[in-house]
Amino acid sequence: MAGRVKQTDIEELKARANLVEIISGYVALKPASAGSFKGLCPFHGEKSASFNVRNSPAFYHCFGCGVGGDVFKFLQEIESISFSEAVERLADKLGYQLSYEEGSSDTSARTRLLAANSAASEFYQQQLQSDEGKFARDFLVSRGFDEKAQQRFGIGYAPKGWQNLLQHLNGLGYSTEELTTVGLVMASDKGGYDRFRGRVLWPIRDANSQVLGFGARKLYEDDQGPKYLNTPETPVYHKGSVLYGLDSARKAIVKSREIVVVEGYTDVMACHLAGVETAVATCGTAFGEEHIKLINRLFGSAGTEPASVIFTFDPDAAGEKAALRMYSDTAKFNALTYVAAGPEGLDPSDLRQQRGDEAIRLMVEARKPLFEFVIRHRLSKFNLNDLESRVAATRAAAAVIADLVDPALKSAYTRQLADWVSLDVSEVSSIVAGVSRNSVADRVAPLSKTPVTPPRQDDPQSRHERQVLEIMVQHPNFFKPLEIRRIAAAGFTNAEYQKLISVMARSLDSIGEPDWVTVLMQQDVELVESIRALAMAELPVRNQGELERYARGIVKAALMQALLREKNDLLAALKRIDQQSQPEAVAQLQQELMKLEQERRSLM
Hints:
This protein has 604 residues and is of the alpha+beta class.
């Protein structure tokens, strides 16, 4: 138990702290009146700045929600920590050595956990340079990241042994209990073992460069774990409120008022190395409310300078769905939202490796407004050379425009759509007006709070869909991520099951992790009971062998059904085309049908 910090130390810390500088690490502040700075309040949502900070006297106050206090109060509130932890956090920031009334030099539990993570990061970086670490170094170089890049991002390597890190940190005075709490060690009756073994690791830091956790990628074929394994939720690491790369990107984001959100650690590295130093990524979870709040704090008030949030999505059905999900939250940003898609579906890491740094910069520069991306993707599914196809394409895109709340934006996109499909604006306006807002909400908001009809247990189709979901929840590694996306895109007949598989499809970064079920439950409170029921369902198997046969059968049946629905969609499109005047379109559809048939036969 740590002793009480001496009052003289607390007063000295408060005197030394530059409150404006401390708060600027969390909130974008701009000069207001003499000696005063202003920004958006981090404690309640607002569009115009009412959060004021002064150094003399050192105090902050929000005229919107009434919060206020000194530097310790701010750290307590923003970090959700105790007063004593706030004192120790500030001492860490200022490099000040605290003394205690009882003569103890112990630090708080949180401070020790952060220190353990820092020591682990140093250990992993040293191991990357070892003989065993050569395989990891070669892997990184093969992906376009040389030694300089490895050092820049603090990449490390976890050796294959079971207790390498545990023994090293025990030797530095950290207990096994502490290392288990911070997620570095797994508990066992034999004294615990390293969570990360035989993997390349990325340290995940906060905006102040403190190591909160790690992301680890497997390297060896005999590793039976998931491709990516992240630190679980701990007292210092909450993945829903962390953005990887923010420690490196924060200054560039604040200066340029632009942030690029990519999907993975190597994508962040590729962007930064290519000169796009505003890139960040979520850490094994979907982009959510806390991420939006974090970005808004970085941008501050809108003012006269526009801010931009640029998402990178694959140019496919999954990318369209991701874009639609993000659009539902666009009103929460103090910024304009865009989409940047790499050519041929290449993610930033592959794009840089295949086409160089300039390709990354061009991808970001060629960004499109988020809704334009979605509409154009809808139109790309149609041949716009004949009137019937243009009308069908208009109906598909109208379903997107109809969901716009801003009348001016809806009118502008209606006129733009009319130009894209070569129809009169009045005709397009009529189609948009005729689209049911309820049906649009069902399509673009798969997690709608509208009650759904419970599935019939005697319906063979519903029974099959439930079996698919049971395997996805209990044993997700039997499915490949692309298979889950494909099955979700094909859709389920039951609305509740469709909600569930949509949740899984957008949580794939966490697939196979120990907290996979918890991750799913956190996506929608109304689905918690359904997910729990799937997780607890008894499967018709008695041993591992039977489980593998059963699961493979379920996977195969699900893919066969997805292929069948894709085939029916293509056949319907083929019927709508004039085969005499559009031989090329017919040939293309027939070729796609042949590919589906070949794929179907390969599954038999």
